[in-house]
């Protein structure tokens, strides 16, 4: 089981590897820089080498980076779109420098300009970045929860973006269970999971599913509420995650927690719950 969490890079980025190891993870996710700003401090050669050294020493085969919060690759606002593409290019380069395999990208919002426009902008952003950066990093488009103006909450919409990509071998999908559930895809029973994954396979192709964000959902099925909950305490529940962890299509993929940290639990408690349900 490749199970991990989104860990902090506070201090220097190599400390993220230590934090993942301390949690007992065998995979993990990071931001490569402060996720709440546009500017990023250049990674030094020393930071990169120490990160890679610890990855090898602790035997992490795969880890994932995530785009920061501000970029919106579906934005119709030219200035925002341009900055978002620049950020995507930068993150592709940083992810590659760190030796990481995947970069997860939120598809974003069309801001009222229509789904068709958002899909075209997202594909343009990805194509531009991949044209500028020639490395082995795969961009993973993350499904959205279906919030107002969001792009990519339906599998059909993600497929439309993928159809426009000029570098198909360099783009895949990261599925977030909370987002998918909020968008109307059921994960509460074994049959429901099979139906959801069959839909994914028929529309997108399970071979393109590379990473799963495992988050329970505060909102009901189809609520379009992007609110993550502790594993087992949300609307998907213990049964749903037990079935998910035993599904052969999911079981071997990197499973990354983005659950809350509050008085009811943290990454350590959620990792323990996942291991309990996985057995």
Protein architecture, described:
This protein has 279 residues and is of the alpha/beta class. It has one domain: Divalent-metal-dependent TIM barrel enzymes (TIM Barrel). Helices cover 39% and strands 14% of the residues. The protein has 9 helices and 10 strands. It has helices at residues 15-22, 45-57, 78-97, 115-132, 155-163, 177-182, 190-203, 237-245, 267-278; strands spanning 3-6, 27-30, 64-66, 102-106, 138-142, 171-176, 209-214, 216-217, 228-229, 255-257. The strands form 2 sheets. An 8-stranded parallel beta barrel has the order 1-2-3-4-5-6-7-10. Strands 8-9 form a two-stranded antiparallel ribbon. Strand 3 (64-66), helix 3 and strand 4 form a beta-alpha-beta unit. Helix 3 packs across helix 4 (115-132) and helix 4 packs across helix 5 (155-163). The longest helix has 20 residues, at 78-97. It is globular, with a radius of gyration of 18 Å. The model has no long low-confidence stretch (mean pLDDT 97).
Number of domains: 1
Please report which band the strand proportion falls in: under 5%, 5-15%, 15-25%, 25-35%, 35-45% or over 45%. Answer: 5-15%
The unreliable regions are none
Distance linking N and C termini: 10 Å
* Rg, Å, rounded: 18 Å
| Largest sheet features | 8 strands, parallel, barrel
Helix content: 25-40%
């Amino acid at each position: 089981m490749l199970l991990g969490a989104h860990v902090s890079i506070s201090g220097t980025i190599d400390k993220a590897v230590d934090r993942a190891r301390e949690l007992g993870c065998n995979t993990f996710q990071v931001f490569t820089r402060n996720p709440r700003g546009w500017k990023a401090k250049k990674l030094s050669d020393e930071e990169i080498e120490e990160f890679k050294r610890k990855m090898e020493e602790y035997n992490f085969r795969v880890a994932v980076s995530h785009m920061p919060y501000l970029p919106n690759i579906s934005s119709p606002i030219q200035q925002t779109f341009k900055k978002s593409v620049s950020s995507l290019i930068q993150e592709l380069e940083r992810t590659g420098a760190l030796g990481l395999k995947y970069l997860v990208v939120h598809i974003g919002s069309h801001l009222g300009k229509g789904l068709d426009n958002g899909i075209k902008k997202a594909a343009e952003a990805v194509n531009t970045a991949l044209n500028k950066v020639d490395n082995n990093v795969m961009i993973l488009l993350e499904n959205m929860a279906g919030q107002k103006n969001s792009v990519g909450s339906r599998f059909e919409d993600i497929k439309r973006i993928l159809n426009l990509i000029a570098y198909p071998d360099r783009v895949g999908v990261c599925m977030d269970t909370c987002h998918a559930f909020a968008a109307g895809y059921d994960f509460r029973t074994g049959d429901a999971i099979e139906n959801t994954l069959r839909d994914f396979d028929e529309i997108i192709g399970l071979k393109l599913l590379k990473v799963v964000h495992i988050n329970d959902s505060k909102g009901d099925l189809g609520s379009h509420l992007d609110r993550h909950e502790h594993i087992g305490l949300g609307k998907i529940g213990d049964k749903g995650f037990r079935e998910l962890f035993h599904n052969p299509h999911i079981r071997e993929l990197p499973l990354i927690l983005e659950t809350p940290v509050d008085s009811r639990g943290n990454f350590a408690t959620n990792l323990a719950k996942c291991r309990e349900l996985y057995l």
